[in-house]
C-alpha cells in the first residue's frame, strides 16, 4: 500500500530489487551507468557489492522494524553483521540527526575514497574495453553498407561510452586529488 502511495504522483523513483541477477558483465556496466546518470531517486536492494560501491550515495539500515541512516561503509556493515552473528567488533550504525550528512562523512573517509577510486578504475577499464569492441565493429566497412541501422546504433553507443568514460575519469581525478589532500 505504501509503495503504491509513493508512486501515485509519478515521482522520479526507481525501486530495484537485485537488478544484476542474471546480467552479463556488459549489461551490469550499462546498468551502473544508467543508474549513475538517472536524476531521480533510486531505492536499491542488492547483494552485488560492486554495484553498491559504484552507485550508492547513502546506506540505510533496515533492522528490528526500523530504518535508519548508516554512517559506515560496506566493510563496516559487514562487521556489524558479523558482530550480530557472533563476531566481535563494535557496531558503528547509529541514527543520524537531520543536521548531519552521513554521505559526506563516508565520502571523506580515506578508506571510502580509496574504494571508490578502485571501483572507478575498474569501471574505466570496462569502458575502455567496450569502446575497443565498438571501434572494432565500426572498423568493418561492410557494417555501414549491410546494416546502416546497426552502424548508427554503434556510433551512438560509442558516443555514450565516451561520455561515461570521461565522467568516470573526471570523478577519478577529483577523488584522487581529494585523497592526496587528505
Describe this structure in words.
With 182 residues, the protein is mainly α. The protein has two domains: 11-103, P-loop containing nucleotide triphosphate hydrolases (Rossmann fold); 110-181, Helix Hairpins (Orthogonal Bundle). It has helices at 2-6, 25-37, 49-55, 74-84, 102-108, 110-138, 142-146, 148-181, and strands at residues 13-17, 41-45, 59-63, 66-70. A hairpin with a 2-residue loop joins strand 3 (59-63) and strand 4 (66-70). The longest helix is centred in the C-terminal third of the chain and has 34 residues, at 148-181. It starts with a helix and ends with a helix.
Short description:
It contains 8 helices and 4 strands; from the N terminus they run αβαβαββααααα.
By DSSP, the count of extended strands is 4
Order of strands side by side in the largest beta sheet? 1-2
User: Mean pLDDT, rounded to whole units?
Assistant: 78
Helix content: 55-70%
Report how far apart the termini are.
46 Å
Oligomerization status of the protein chains: single chain
Question: Do you know the CATH architecture of the largest domain?
Answer: 3-Layer(aba) Sandwich
Amino acid at each position: 500500500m505504501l509503495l503504491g502511495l509513493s508512486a501515485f504522483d509519478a515521482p522520479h523513483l526507481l525501486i530495484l530489487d537485485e537488478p544484476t541477477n542474471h546480467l552479463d558483465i556488459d549489461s551490469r556496466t550499462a546498468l551502473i551507468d544508467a543508474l549513475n546518470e538517472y536524476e531521480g531517486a533510486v531505492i536499491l536492494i542488492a547483494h552485488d557489492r560492486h554495484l553498491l560501491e559504484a552507485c550508492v550515495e547513502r546506506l540505510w539500515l533496515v533492522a528490528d522494524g526500523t530504518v535508519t541512516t548508516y554512517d559506515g561503509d560496506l566493510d563496516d556493515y559487514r562487521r556489524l553483521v558479523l558482530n550480530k552473528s557472533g563476531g566481535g567488533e563494535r557496531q558503528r550504525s547509529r541514527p543520524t540527526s537531520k543536521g548531519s550528512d552521513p554521505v559526506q562523512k563516508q565520502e571523506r573517509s580515506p578508506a571510502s575514497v580509496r574504494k571508490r577510486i578502485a571501483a572507478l578504475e575498474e569501471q574505466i577499464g570496462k569502458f575502455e574495453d567496450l569502446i575497443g569492441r565498438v571501434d572494432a565493429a565500426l572498423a568493418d566497412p561492410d557494417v555501414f553498407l549491410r546494416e546502416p541501422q546497426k552502424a548508427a546504433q554503434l556510433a551512438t553507443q560509442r558516443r555514450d561510452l565516451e561520455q561515461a568514460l570521461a565522467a568516470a575519469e573526471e570523478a577519478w581525478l577529483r577523488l584522487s586529488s581529494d585523497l592526496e589532500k587528505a
